[in-house]
Design brief:
heterodimer, A: 273 residues, 9 helices, globular, B: 264 residues, mainly alpha, MetI-like fold, flat
């Protein structure tokens, strides 16, 4: 098992090519730059090309513009220059399902209504909305909490609702902005396993923002390392572990530790760059 | 361990019971003191008639039907005025919360008009709407309108940004956006506005009835003063107080039902 590290050009391929071929949600980011109104440059010429069905992680020092990048992908912010495209038809924004870092499920809606938020305006009947919501709640293990309000849930459960909301929308690209940053280590590793299990059923294209190196190696097919502000792509690292992955056994693999150390080195370079 | 715990629980139960009893008995004790002071001629019965004679006056007014008539008329003006002011106020508040253009246009107007005491505009309102029920309804509506507009727009503006981002990211638009995000997000502030404006509405309707009415609780009080029937005045005051209290309790219950998602 070897890992390929490429600084600059190169594209990583997903482990399961057949599953990826079923989907057409290749994600292309071309020379995206972002300058805020006060003149600070947040992103500089960021280009990514993520093949359909690949799980990509983006790590970088805090304040490097990772979240800005994701907000641009989600259509919540406009880039100053550059463009975002997916290879399937239609507005890319309608294909992005976002999982936010902070508590983002509506406190005034029951869990069931929160999961159905992305199904609004798709012209689905009440019964099929219910079926999709039930299916996702079952997958994240929250069937018993369908009628609960968010204030009755723990932090980990709220993030599971947020993940269920993203998957229920059946959009082709999943954008995740440090979704587990606020959780304790045990809950986090539990949720990593759950996320991969659900993701492997549909193999969406994923862009996962994190500042956790271990997290990125455990989850992703490919890790992008960003520089300090203004954020640029410093390196791209392929993660060779086979799927499905066992979150505990994986951490015992010497290759796992080796890759984590390699990315640490790249991150140090990126911060100096 | 468990004996100590039980003793502690018993002590806190006793304290709660004592607090509850005190809450009920303190007004009663005050009324008894009042009655006693009037009978001892320590208080002037012309200004402070004994509770017993106020009750007697109330029973008399209730028997003739006068009290119920006045109460009904005041409630009618209050309810119509509240509804007529609240809905346009909520609509304008939502618009101001949504659009910075609407805020730029309506904001300064509201800031300038809101502080004018509504009762000071009553002569103008009577001039336009006449001496009938309509002028009383309008003065209440005007008072309610501003408070609801201000509270609703503040409620929309204080919805956390993340919820607006979620709505945008998942394509919530139009009616689904208003009903799913804006209204529920602004609802706590909107309901606070409803509580405040209902209190103001009661003040306005009674004051308007003082000046320009031949019926209603305000008229009952004013007429009591003009004919030197001090007991009748007190009956009016007590009924207004009870009405205000009942409305507060009712709204708090409504609030509990409307906001089941707030942690309590």
């Amino acid at each position: 098992m070897t890992s390929r590290i490429c600084v600059g050009e190169g594209v990583c391929l997903p482990q399961n090519r057949e599953a990826a071929a079923m989907l057409d949600h290749r994600m292309v980011v071309e020379a995206v730059s972002k300058r805020f109104e006060d003149g600070t440059a947040a992103l500089e010429e960021v280009s990514l090309e993520i093949p359909a069905g690949q799980f990509a992680a983006v790590i970088g020092p805090s304040g490097c513009g990772k979240t800005t990048l994701l907000r641009i992908l989600a259509g919540l912010d406009e880039p100053t220059s550059g463009c975002v495209a997916t290879s399937s038809d239609g507005d890319p924004r309608g294909q992005m399902a976002m999982v936010f870092q902070e508590q983002s499920i509506f406190p005034w809606m029951r869990v069931r209504e929160n999961v159905a938020v992305g199904l609004n305006g798709l012209g689905l009947g009440r019964a099929s909305i219910r079926a999709r919501v039930d299916e996702q709640l079952d997958l994240v293990g929250l069937s018993d909490f369908a009628e609960a309000f968010p204030h009755q849930l723990s932090g980990g459960m709220k993030q599971r609702v947020s993940i269920a909301r993203a998957f229920a929308s059946r959009r082709g690209v999943l954008l995740m902005d440090e979704p587990f940053a606020a959780l304790d280590e045990q809950t986090k590793i539990g949720l990593h396993g759950e996320l991969l299990r659900i993701w492997e059923r549909s193999r969406k294209t994923v862009v996962f923002i994190t500042h956790g190196i271990e997290e990125s190696v455990a989850l992703a097919d490919c890790v992008y390392v960003m520089t300090a502000r203004p954020g640029r792509i410093h390196a791209r690292v392929e993660v060779p572990f086979a799927r499905p992955r066992d979150m505990v056994a994986l951490r015992g693999d010497p290759a796992f530790g080796k890759l984590v150390v390699e990315i640490w080195g790249l991150l140090r370079e990126a911060m100096a760059a | 361990m468990s004996a100590a715990w039980e003793a502690q629980a018993r002590r806190s139960r006793r304290l709660r019971a004592a607090e509850h009893a005190l809450r009920l008995t303190s007004p009663l004790v005050l009324l008894l003191l009042w009655e006693w002071a009037v009978r001892m001629r320590l208080l002037d019965a012309r200004f402070f008639p004994a509770p017993s004679s106020v009750i007697a006056a109330a029973v008399g007014l209730a028997r003739t039907g006068e009290l119920w008539g006045d109460l009904g008329v005041t409630l009618y003006r209050l309810a119509l005025g509240f509804v007529a002011g609240a809905f346009p106020g909520i609509a304008l508040g939502l618009l101001m919360g949504l659009s910075r253009w609407a805020r730029a246009v309506a904001g300064p107007l509201i800031a300038a008009l809101y502080p004018i005491p509504k009762i000071a505009v009553l002569p103008l309102i009577i001039l336009i709407f006449g001496l009938g029920d309509l002028s009383k309804i309008v003065v209440v509506a005007v008072g309610v309108f501003f408070i609801m507009a201000i509270n609703t727009s503040a409620g929309v503006l204080q919805i956390e940004r993340i919820y607006l981002d979620v709505a945008k990211a998942y394509g919530l638009r139009g009616l689904a956006y208003v009903r799913g995000v804006l209204l529920p997000g602004a609802l706590p502030s909107l309901l606070t506005g409803a509580k405040v404006s209902l209190g103001i509405a009661l003040i306005l309707v009674v004051a308007a009835e003082f000046l320009a009415a031949k019926d209603g609780l305000g008229y009952l009080i004013w007429n009591g003063w003009q004919t030197l029937q001090v007991e009748q005045m007190y009956v009016g005051l007590v009924v207004v107080a009870v009405l205000g209290y009942a409305m507060t309790i009712g709204l708090e219950e409504a609030e509990r039902r409307a906001l089941p998602w707030l942690p309590r």
